[in-house]
Amino acid sequence: MLNEQELQEGLSELSGWSVEEGKWLVKKYRFPSFPEAIAFVNKVAGIAEKMNHHPFIAIDYRKVTLRITSWNSGGLTALDINSAKDYDQ
């Protein structure tokens, strides 16, 4: 699990991500259309499968919210930071 300094350093490498409840990395994405939002979710699914690290995904028309945590570690880890970077690409 990341300590506070490591978490802040990781967040500084991300854009638009925040920490919620001390254990979730969260970001909301907005897309021009519903099909584009779904295409993004499909890309996230492919990345998550390769990493074997799956986010919670909420789809609300053109808005997609990703929530990431490492359950087995009890909080946020470098894997969560790396996942967020990959989703943003």
Write up this protein.
- Its EC number is 4.2.1.96.
- It comes from Cohnella kolymensis.
- With 89 residues, the chain is α+β, with helices and mostly antiparallel strands.
- It has one domain: Gyrase A, domain 2 (2-Layer Sandwich).
- Helix content is 43%, strand content 24%.
- It has 3 helices and 4 strands, in the order αββαββα.
- It has helices at 4-12, 34-51, 78-88, and strands at residues 18-20, 24-30, 56-60, 63-68.
- It has a 4-stranded antiparallel sheet with strand order 1-2-4-3, with helices on one face.
- The mean pLDDT is 97.
CATH fold group? Gyrase A, domain 2
The pLDDT mean sits at 97
* Secondary structure tally, helices: 3
State the name of the first-level CATH class.
Alpha Beta
Uncertain segments: none
Number of domains: 1
Order of helices and strands: HEEHEEH
Going by CATH, the homologous superfamily would be Transcriptional coactivator/pterin dehydratase
A few lines on this structure:
This protein has 89 residues and is an alpha+beta fold.
Provide key terms for this protein:
Gyrase A, domain 2; 3 helices; 43% helix; four-stranded antiparallel sheet; alpha+beta; 89 residues
